[in-house]
Amino acid sequence: MDWGMQNRLSRIIKEDGKCLLMPIDHGYFQGPTSKLEKPGETIKQLLPYSDALFVTRGVLRACVDTAENIPIILRVSGGTSMVGKDLANEGITTSMKEAVRLNVSAVGMSVFIGSDYEKETLLNLGRLVDEGEEYGIPVMAVTAVGRELEKRDARYLGMCCRIAAEIGAKVVKTYWCEDFDKVVNGCPVPVVIAGGPKAETEREVLSFVHDGMQRGAIGVNLGRNIWQNPYPVPMIKAIRAIIHENASLIEAVEIFNIEKNQMAKAVAV
Question: For the whole model, what pTM was predicted?
Fold first, then answer.
């Protein structure tokens, strides 16, 4: 692997081989998502605990302080919305030259395997990987999004991840599922866990994060299950403990509760 490519990956994936990625790119198809109406304010307290930020160029320029020393994964696909006909009909919205101008550590795009636009999104990934190799910028593929969420089992997700890796993605983001080790074991590049819709309880989130890490994931790319939580900082601290400190599920739940109680007491005073 070229030095530039490896150096950029090392900014995202830390020395222990793990990472906690913070996505705030939801607005590119959802508009002003709850708790993300003002992205700069949402992330301010979370950046110290994040290893990288997954964001569009518009929000990066408008809402992220240039003095922040946070690695950036740039969302470069889009072209559809929640009110459009089909979320899977995405294209590349941002050039690799723009990624270089913004000094990003990686770029990310979605692939929609099993949709009517499977071929188009996979060919887009191939072209993006070609450009990434030319500029020394790694590509993260985001799998199983939109209507394909209904297919979240190990066989489907394993296929998605393997195809993305075969085309050249350096990292794959996908959803946790039962038998997650089957997904990871069939993918020759690192896998990070996506958060998906907001979970009902903190324990539910911490449970799938812990299980996924035990089964071979290198980290997470969680947004809504952190910044939509009433206590986002305790939540990200608990998740970070699982990823970087090998905390058990019980220890992570305890960390969340202790941090939450301390924060509640500080507010009460």
Answer: 0.95
